[in-house]
Write a structure and sequence with these properties.
Two copies of one chain form a homodimer. In chain A, 46% of the residues lie in helices and 15% in strands. The first copy, chain A, binds a DNA duplex through helix 2 and helix 4.
Amino acid sequence: MSERRVTIRDVAAAAGVSVTTVSHALNGKGSVDPATRERVIAAAGDLGYRASRAARALRSGRTGVIAMLLPAPDTLDAEREMLSLDYYMQLAMAAAGAAFERHHPLLLTPPLKTVAELRELGVDGGILCDPGRADPRLALFEELGLPVVTIERDLGRPEHRWYVRGDNEANTHELLDHLADAGATRVAMLAAESDWAWSAESEQAYRAWCASRGQEPIVEVTGLHQLEASAYESGGRLLDRPQRPDAIFALAESYATGVVRAARDRGLEVPRDLLVASGIDSQQTREATPPITTIDLLPQDQGAAAARLLVERLEGAEPAAPVVVPAALRIRASTQP
Amino acid sequence: MSERRVTIRDVAAAAGVSVTTVSHALNGKGSVDPATRERVIAAAGDLGYRASRAARALRSGRTGVIAMLLPAPDTLDAEREMLSLDYYMQLAMAAAGAAFERHHPLLLTPPLKTVAELRELGVDGGILCDPGRADPRLALFEELGLPVVTIERDLGRPEHRWYVRGDNEANTHELLDHLADAGATRVAMLAAESDWAWSAESEQAYRAWCASRGQEPIVEVTGLHQLEASAYESGGRLLDRPQRPDAIFALAESYATGVVRAARDRGLEVPRDLLVASGIDSQQTREATPPITTIDLLPQDQGAAAARLLVERLEGAEPAAPVVVPAALRIRASTQP
DNA sequence: TCCCATGACCAAAACGTTTTGGTCTATCGT
DNA sequence: ACGATAGACCAAAACGTTTTGGTCATGGGA
């Protein structure tokens, strides 16, 4: 009836050693005879022993728990419009899976403002997605001496090298080359008004690509709220130029659909009269009419990589960082005339 | 330098009582003089005391942590296609926020298979989203005696009354009435092939509505993978009927866009020749061309309600359940001829 | 031979709570 | 006036680890 918990004492008894030795053997801490260690590990396995997270946390101060911080808009209303929820969901689930495999649960963390809030969470470290320039949340962690891995860099923190990122330059180049191959001669960009590395680097890569081709960059910066509507407008401005672009690289997913609508309203057909591609993949771009070519950043890979990186740090290893996660170009009808 | 933690002992000293009394006063457990309780609470406040989660967990066996279980598809590939990621993201974030406010962190939990995995998580309870019929994950929690709140009921568990749900019958009726008001006389439904309560109840409500109007129900069941493509096909079948429907209630978000495409391919214009509405709201329906009328289930409210319900149970209250969360009908161009 | 590392091991303390099992005083019913 | 009951309080045990500060051989260098 009474399913008593298997404690370290039970393991010690089974292996015929002290609890100290069990602890050392299992955590690779002190010095224990290899044979003894084997015996302890076997005994622990037989009994199905798992150290109590609470006891461990109490004594050592480490909980093993990881905080996941998604981009925190100021208002919830803004969130609705702004986030590529699709992308972050994939990211979060993948990170949770990878962390859990390594016995580190992942906390979904609401926007944090103060050190007290962070302290109360009782986490050992955090994954911070798309930090703004000199993101205050990063500072919060540092204040408590907790390790952080960011997904994409913090542009205001060049010294912080613990991050996972997409190869935004290469991805952008590849996409733009694809557009050129498909016949585009005047490629414009719908960039985002943000201080995220992803956004800044993508825009910069676009400009570099233009320069390398002796082409003049055509950039419209688009707002972060009311994504589709903003893109409809700024995309429309691009299309109304005397020298109309024949391809548009719309950074966000909703930008792309906004541009397609603007084109359609002007009697332009995608991809016949205009090629459209997006810098991020989602159900929206996959299922749009026509389906839209995108850079799939593989959020599953990014999330898993970030979790791995953080866990390795937590466990005392010195993993190589930063990590660059390759993306996949998803070529769809919107760029195939 | 040494920022020593404020412990219960410090509070006891400050209030001039024993640690037992502090514990009792703060947790409302034993019997303490109201004046003393005040004094203790004041002292704790002054010192900024927060009970150590680890210590509490160790002694009492309760961690205060909540597990969040999203619908677990068998393969990750299926997930990509199937989930309304948007909706679940909102749900999860809202639940995390509401739980955190009440000092209960929320764990994002990967698909669980065994009791051992669940035990290792060390949670006090769980929120289970969209359980399938007799969902095995619900059983996992029960096996450990942990409370669960589901979002939408488990159709195979009528006795389990701890759930939060949308008023699917009323929502569906309201939406269908709106279609009728907009001039529809033959409303068809694109239902989903699933054993979720949301899906089953919505379909049933549709049939009931038809019956109450003496109208024959027209239902096409659509697959859960390749949502948009499946809906394009089954929606097309509806449109190719000799007696073509003049409105389609497409349950899932991607069903609606699929139907719109099928209509467009047949030279039908939405909303002129066909009204289209969806049972779930998302960025996709908001930004579609034309924007699609939907039932916004208000996942923020559902998530927060579920978290509240579970937390109240965890804290020993006997909250009223089940909870019905009202939805909002989002009327958009797709149903305004 | 003696001394000093070093390796293998262990008993006990410590982490910060909650819970158990009390003591003591005041009040109530008879 | 007496025992019983309830209220207010407390000391100590308990939760299951990790860490501290050892002991005791064993072997190598002087």
